[in-house]
What does this fold into?
Amino acid sequence: YLDLSYNNFSSSIPSEFGRLTNLEFLDLHQNGFTGEFPSSVSNLTGLTYLDLSNNKFTSSFPHVYNLAKLSSLELSNNRFEGKVPEWIWNLPSLTLMSLANNSLDSFEGSPEAPLNSSLVYLSLSSNAFQGFFPMLPQSMRYIVAADNNFTGEIPLSMCNPRNLLYVDLSNNSFSDSFPRCLSESLIVLNLRHNNLRRFPDKFSNSSLKMLDVGHNQIRGKLPRSLVNCKSLEFLNVESNRINDTFPFWMTALPNMLLIILRSNRFNGPIYSPQHPLSFPELRLFDISHNKFDGSLPPNYFMNWSAALVRGREYKGPSFYIGDSYPLRFHPSIVMNVKGMTMELEKVFTDYAFVDFSRNRLGGQIPESIGLLKSLIALNLSNNDFTGQIPSSLATLNELQSLDLSRNQLSGNIPQELSALSFLADINMSHNNLTGQIPQGTQFVSQDDTSFEGNINLCGLPLHKSCLEKNGAPSPQTRQLKPSKQEYMLNSKAAMMGYGLTLIMFGLGIGYVIAAYRPTWFLKFF
It folds into this structure.
């Protein structure tokens, strides 16, 4: 047993390593080893575990062809290049192999070569692979091949494994569709950033929890057969060419946590009296950049139970290979803050996100928005909302980003909003708002562009005083007492929040970690 990991070694590996013939475990990861890995390692015939990851090894694939007992081979984050040798599939004990983040470009032998392998986990991500995709052995359960240049259709051989759980083929150039025959046991399917043009004819997978087909060229309608995926938690179809009405049938999926329909051609209303939206677990709802229209009733958000209180951390399904090898799918989302598009690398649903921007929604903003106590970001910009800004927004104590710009909102900005201590980004520009901007720190610290385009609005940060000619303050619209309807909404929120707090007591608090963190996340975290 030899573990030299997490040191600062920077030399090449001496060939004398080949004399350690009784060695079973060798871990050299997280160093600065350079050069070729010595071919003498093939003498270590008793080796079962070899980890060379996170070094600077160069040249071709290491010579480990004699290691019949090797079960785990970790070569990720090095500078290996060239072809994956055909003999690697013949190592009888090999169950885990990670080749991620190298410069490997192809496979020796035929596509059928891996069929007799014993591999359970294979990572090929972030290399230079192109052309055909190797056939998978029946033992395979986890395949990660993201960030390459595989082309053509996703092969039917993907259906060979009988217990396949995890497939990540994102950021490639696969075309057409994906096989309907994918294993019934599949839990995660990530195909984002490819050239797929259609969904399969039917979904019948009752185990699927996460489906990401964002950033493809998929046309047509969202397949209603997705309703058969009763375990589905995460659905992302963003940036495709889907032309459909709102999928009210999705309310039959009780575990939905994240729904992302943004940047498609969805149209029509998002409210139906016959199909009231009831998503008891929903935390993220993004339908932006579509053509949805119609108005929303005051109680529209009343049945979004999980968003009424801060809830559990969402990490996605976890998988363990053997006793200790973790694998986790981190869904990513895109958010708009003050006109800037930012991709969040990881999503945690201790908080809620709602983005209805760039649609044709009208009428008043539902008062029930104030029930979503865990709401951290609300974007209703570029719609046709009218009436006053609901004072119930003042109850959203976690709110950090609020964008109501480019609507037809009128009346005063509720002064109560100045009490939202975490509110860091505000945009209410290009409406018909009047009176004085609330003078809390969160408001006066904004750019004046956050309130421009409201000709009757005054006060900091605008360079327009609210003093009348006689020097007296301009009259403010009196603060109205809560309506009976608002009182009932708040009462229901309190009762539901109390119940959910008891249920979720003790669950961990999550975070949102951004590839490029918006300022408002940095201020809070």
Remarks:
- The CA atoms of residues 40 and 244 lie 61 Å apart.
